[in-house]
Design goal:
- The chain has 150 residues and is mostly helical.
- It contains 1 helix and no strands.
- The mean pLDDT is 89.
- It is 89% helix and 0% strand.
- The chain starts with 15 loop residues before the first helix and ends with a helix.
């Protein structure tokens, strides 16, 4: 607020009785000026306090909204983690069931592997016999050709 000059009251130089009136008048004028000045300062302080209150209330409201958002995010995250835990538990159960089925099928799978190995050996023998048969057929044809030619 602007600094207002303090009013000066001229003291009349009259009689002694009027001196008392002048002092009363000067005192009253000084207190009225002081009252006006203090009211202005008080109004300024009130305005500042109100603005600070509004700023703090806004800041608190924003902080509260942040905390509420975090709370909602935590609830959603907790729900998702619970769903994932349930899913993982179900996967664990599924894996245990599949392992039990695999263990029950293992003897049959071993037999299949053994049969496959035997079939592979048999194919090799068949190929050898086929090659041997072809050579015998060629030899027989060449002997037949030489017999006819002689």
């Amino acid at each position: 607020m602007e600094d207002e000059p303090t009013p000066t009251v001229p003291l009349p130089v009259e009689e002694e009785g009027s001196n008392e009136q002048a002092y009363i008048h000067a005192t009253r004028t000084m207190f009225q000026a002081l009252n006006k000045y203090l009211r202005g300062e008080l109004n300024c302080a009130l305005v500042c306090v109100r603005k600070m209150f509004l700023a703090l209330r806004t800041l608190c409201a924003v902080t509260l909204e942040d905390y509420l958002l975090l709370e909602r995010m935590n609830r959603v995250a907790t729900q998702k983690y619970n769903e994932m835990a349930d899913y993982a538990e179900g996967l664990g159960t599924f894996i245990a069931i599949m392992q039990a089925k695999y263990d029950s099928l293992r003897p049959y799978l071993d037999q299949i592997d053994e049969i496959d190995a035997r079939v592979t050996q048999l194919e090799q023998v068949v190929n050898l016999l086929n090659d041997y048969t072809k050579r015998l057929e060629q030899r027989f044809k060449s002997l037949q050709y030489t017999c006819k030619a002689s």
